[in-house]
Request: fold
Amino acid sequence: MDERWIPARVGDAVTDVDTPALILDLDRFEGNLARLMSAVQGRGIRVRPHAKSHKCVEIARRQMAAGAIGICCQKTSEAEAFLAGGITDVLISNEVVGDRKTARLAQLAARYPGAKVGVCVDDPRAVAQLARACEHARTQLDVYIELDVGHNRAGVTDIGAVVALGQAITSQASLVLRGLHAYFGNAQHLRSIAERRQAIAAATATAQAAQRALIAAGLRCDVITGAGTGTFMLEAASGVYTEIQPGSYVMMDIDYAKNEQELAWPAFEQSLMILTTVMSRRKDAQHDRATLDAGLKSFSTDSGPALPAFAGWQVRGVSDEHTVLERNGAGPDLLLGGKALLIPGHIDPTVNLHDWIVAVRGDRVEAVWPIEARGAIF
Amino acid sequence: MDERWIPARVGDAVTDVDTPALILDLDRFEGNLARLMSAVQGRGIRVRPHAKSHKCVEIARRQMAAGAIGICCQKTSEAEAFLAGGITDVLISNEVVGDRKTARLAQLAARYPGAKVGVCVDDPRAVAQLARACEHARTQLDVYIELDVGHNRAGVTDIGAVVALGQAITSQASLVLRGLHAYFGNAQHLRSIAERRQAIAAATATAQAAQRALIAAGLRCDVITGAGTGTFMLEAASGVYTEIQPGSYVMMDIDYAKNEQELAWPAFEQSLMILTTVMSRRKDAQHDRATLDAGLKSFSTDSGPALPAFAGWQVRGVSDEHTVLERNGAGPDLLLGGKALLIPGHIDPTVNLHDWIVAVRGDRVEAVWPIEARGAIF
Reply:
């Protein structure tokens, strides 16, 4: 994070923010925080938002203040940034494998003896590595068995393997078996409500069978954690999941906005945008073209490019540092040097391209938050 | 750049490097440096490599040592990183527009009075902004008129507009008209030789006409700069271009490797790879699956995902921090905790995701270079 490259100061007008910059609309952001918590209130479900979406300690603090019990991370270096920022309950919802990586995780947990640090496993060799690392660092880790409930990315499917992992974890004094990690990632982006209902019903049945097998083997399974922004209402209502992990809900993106919405579900608003400057403009017989100063290095395109937050313009091309818009209907004119807002296609890898979130209320900058875990891939 | 997250130390075995990490094969890298310079030797063409590909001061220094006359950047903040690193001739091959941005550029040039700093323009309003900023900072800038030679992203096409811009620049005591920026980006990725030849022939004719018009109007046009890794041999042979700007050639990627190659052209080798760890492994009746610990936050997918650098495996899915490989033929086994190399699809936005380049010779780490201009989007 380079202080020289900070795009705004508190009190700046939004139109004076340097570009490209991530702009967080605080009213919408706070609304999203409240919508999530009130949607699951009274259901006895714990909320552990996924911080890989925002990578920002200040957002995690606000999620905790709104009632979250902790956060998820995807990497040890990410967890490090949040523990350093005072978040004391962090689950790495991912496998950590190999002596170098397990040693680093155990050393991190040892540095924060008052914090809860959790990690997922899907292989007994990783259990042994984690235990050795914890013994060496004189610390303990919470461990969750990753169950593959349909995502087919990591995790075990076989009930026998779940029980064997449970026994392996329990046999280690330095590891505490907490339960199951049962996240169905692909289900988040199934467009129809019916498909998502079906996917999470199947995931719930698988998780429940694994939990019963652990308990039947005399093992504990107090926590079943999973769910994202596309399905969390289903896991929350399942009676089986004890914890949900939505991440994108605070900021949203084009991909999530494509999901068919249940009327009874909270309607999250797009709170994060990318502010750009019109750096080249052509208006002649052939073209009505505006070129913006943000491209592949300011937003990811894995779910399509960032799109204009206004009518009348479409994306014709994206390169490293440019997005070319061409007029395709009625909408605002774009002036050379003027600002234009884009909506990100996929929030998580887009935020990871920036060092700062410029938090605005109305047309004024209220705060500039560092993205401490940007680039925390280790 | 966070020193805590450095993936390797000098002398480490490559297999001990923490992952995900960018691995630069120094033998191939040095070969690519030499191949470029010898390919254009004796043609009277100057080489100004584009540093937006690597964003690394040490690589720029080596390009200069091999005979480059300076570098290109795409943003003022990028130029700042290279000037701070001792590169004293930097062309921002892009427009810089608006009072805040032009002020910053002029202040940067003023901080390095011994350096040459250039910028592109395609609008007289930007010329006026640059001049005001330079007067205020008591400095001068080299200015290039961006000519749209087919890329249709920025730049002017009309010869009258070229001459008007030339006059506007020349009328400002703080601006020095250097010539034309005539880069045909899309042509770099045209697959067939014939298409690239045709595109650059047309670009050359356009550039020559613009140059003649400037000279006829009593203006100077000493430099015509452009070209990338896919076409630079054509610009070098054009007799019109005086300077080429290849960037990807030092590291290469899957997209460039898809181009049909002329036999007489230098055959650049893939020198940059992404080292990953197998973090989950499934081998059963249904699956032979290896999940790697690198995803959308370790490589960009705008030109397709990173692909295995070894046979027998294909990419089945990519998410934020995972790439799922599935076996599809004969090839090495992948073991849990073992390492796997991926070839990036598109080098520029991939390098921008990392803080460090791990430079290796054979199986040993020879150096670890910071990527100083990572995230320099302003």
